[in-house]
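HUMAN: You are asked to prepare a plain-text protein record giving the amino acid sequence and the backbone structure tokens, both parts labelled.

ASSISTANT:
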Amino acid sequence: MGAAHSASEEVRELEGKTGFSSDQIEQLHRRFKQLSGDQPTIRNLRKGPSGLADEIDFEDFLTIMSYFRPIDTTLGEEQVEQSRKEKLRFLFHMYDSDSDGRITLEEYRNVVEELLSGNPHIEKESARSIADGAMMEAASVCVGQMEPDQVYEGITFEDFLKIWQGIDIETKMHVRFLNMETIALCH
């Protein structure tokens, strides 16, 4: 009885911390176990400043996934905007690997190269050109016309918000929970 009580108490704490329902937490736990090979942690895909890969446990996994939870349709406009900013801040920090508040060209190149490294048809130089072009576009959106001797220091979070203005990330950047009963009927 004690273990079941403590487990349900832990689920309630996770519900409060992440905004997921107990059913969603259960589905995410099953997915975590698949990704971890039934181990207590998953190796983080991104290397930290130390160069060593971090490991995340289930609670860390849930916290990360909570940035991608579906928008609550009962939220007011201000709360939706706050949720949008939280998602964008999370995304910004994925690029800002040295956490200095600015995405530099080198940091952006690293992320683009990492993302495209699995595609055998795109060489490193092509990925670099894609990153350079995107950074030039960002500079034109954030700074406007630059002087030939002017150096673009990188994208701040405020710049990042400008770049993403008008793009509906709420529907593009969320976890979709499938009804497992419906899926079982399909097989």
In short: Strands lie at 41-47, 53-57. Residues 84 and 170 are 7 Å apart (CA to CA). Residues 77-95 form the longest helix (19 residues).
